[in-house]
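Notebook, student rotation project (T.W.).
Task set for the rotation: take a protein with a known small-molecule partner, predict the structure of the complex, and write up what can be learned from the model alone. Partner molecule chosen: adenosine-5'-triphosphate. Sequence and SMILES entered below by T.W., checked by me.
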Amino acid sequence: MLVIGLISGTSVDGIDAALVDISGTDSDIKVEFLAGETYPYPTKLRQQILAVCAGEALSMAQLAELDDAIAQTFAQAAQHLQINHSSVELIGSHGQTVYHRPPQRRSEGHEGQGSALPALKGFPDILGYSLQLGRGAVIAELTQIPTVSNFRTGDIAAKGHGAPLVPRVDAYLLSHPHESRCVQNIGGIANVAYLPPRSHPDWLEKVRGWDTGPGNSLLDLAVQHFTNGSRTYDANGEWASSGSPCHTLVEKWLSQDYFQLPPPKSTGRELFGWDYLQACLADTTALNLSAADTLATLTELTAASIVHSYQTFLPQQSDRVLLCGGGSRNFYLKRRLQELLAPLPVQTTDEIGLSANFKEAIAFAVLAYWRMLNLPGNLPQATGATQPVLLGEMHLPI
Ligand SMILES: Nc1ncnc2c1ncn2[C@@H]1O[C@H](COP(=O)(O)OP(=O)(O)OP(=O)(O)O)[C@@H](O)[C@H]1O
Ligand SMILES: CC(=O)N[C@H]1[C@@H]2OC[C@@H](O2)[C@@H](O)[C@@H]1O[C@H](C)C(=O)O
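Predicted structure of the complex:
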């Protein structure tokens, strides 16, 4: 069955669209990657999304307009990708995350909502909330293809974080009979899926996954800051590689809350955004670090936080690390991870046959396919949900 997966991630750089041919169910699933394309957002739309992610207030009318503009751009991406493939039967559209709030308990220092109603038994004091714009009904109507969207809400209703959702897909597509693997996505935010050897009994229950912290989000913002917006990222990590990281600052930043929090955990630009970068820049300025040294230090934070996460939270060390997401194209970051994790092999998923650029888009095609087959998509160990649940809402064209 031909399925298109669509996602724009926390970097808000554009829509990744993947066309795949899927057969089987879960343990026997086969996914053939046929085509992939990234469609950059129109500049004005990207700026609007980034402003909303940074907390800019919107009227309801503006929210509706933004939702539809994103849905239309996603539909155009799907339409463009399916040219020459007229038999696409399903779209899985993640949409654009503009807000993500993990669930919180009062013991974590939050006072709750002050409701007059009694607390619901077993519910976190503050339920998670994750908003992805680009409504599926519009995409289904514009493309005339059934579309699954709103993947995170079912897991959140089951008291989970609603993220990360990709670990179940990684488990079926990337696990190995005898080798344990860490699949490390480095997007705006970085997340890991730990995959034990598939020959182990109960291997799926032993899969783990969580957001390790910042991927490229702080780096991208710092590059924009140092270039007055003329550059949006450090291509291949060249600028950072011309500087030297300040390890004392990395140690200081790593001691902060998020990195010490045990999984399941998720995060977003709400934490690792402008305010976080400002605090980092206050530290780097106090030490007179150059722009190159600052970028090297932020790159080191991404690498060191991934390594810290593995050392602290993995049930056991893995045999191999497989990188994906835009950060896997940052050669300096990849080299630092290789050095810090040596002698573990650190490669990209491309090297074992799965596109590192389009793995997330492929994953949402698979999640839509599982939704259609009424199979669960989340992994409770990764999201903190009480149980495996169906993910996403199906929208049929009129
Ligand atoms: N050649 C490259 N060199 C360095 N960095 C790169 C390169 N190509 C992409 N990137 C980085 O990857 C980022 C985009 O990665 P990706 O598309 O995987 O993120 P995302 O999907 O938006 O985020 P997330 O996975 O958190 O949702 C860019 O913002 C940039 O920082
Ligand atoms: C709320 C949200 O969009 N989270 C993203 C983000 O980008 C990376 C990391 O944070 C991950 O947890 C998640 O995306 C992937 C696709 C996931 O759900 O597995």
